[in-house]
Amino acid sequence: MMLKKANVLLLDEPTNHLDLESITALNNGLINYKGAMIFTSHDHQFVQTIANRIIDITDGKITDKQLTYDEFLEWNKERVSS
C-alpha cells in the first residue's frame, strides 16, 4: 500500500496477531509515512508513537485534539476531574 503512494491509510487494530518484530517494523514504516492515517488500536505504545491527533467519540460527542495519546489522556483526566 505504501508503494502505491496512497494518501490515506485506514487501519483497524493493525498490531493484532503480530509478533514484536513485525509490530516494530510496522511502527517504523508508519512513522515514516507522509500521508494521512486513520486507525484504531488497543496498543498504547503503538498509538503513542504514531498518533499526533486524537479524535474521541464518546456518548455521541466528538472531541478532536492535536495531541499525542499520553497528552490526550492527561488532558481528559484533568477535564473529567474539574
Automatic annotation (TrEMBL):
Keyword set, alphabetical order: ATP-binding, Nucleotide-binding
The keyword Nucleotide-binding belongs to this UniProt entry's keyword annotation: yes
Gene Ontology molecular function, alphabetical: ATP binding
InterPro entries linked to this entry: ABCF_ATPase, P-loop_NTPase
Statement: the UniProt record of this protein carries the keyword Zinc-finger: no
Name assigned to this protein: Heme ABC transporter ATP-binding protein
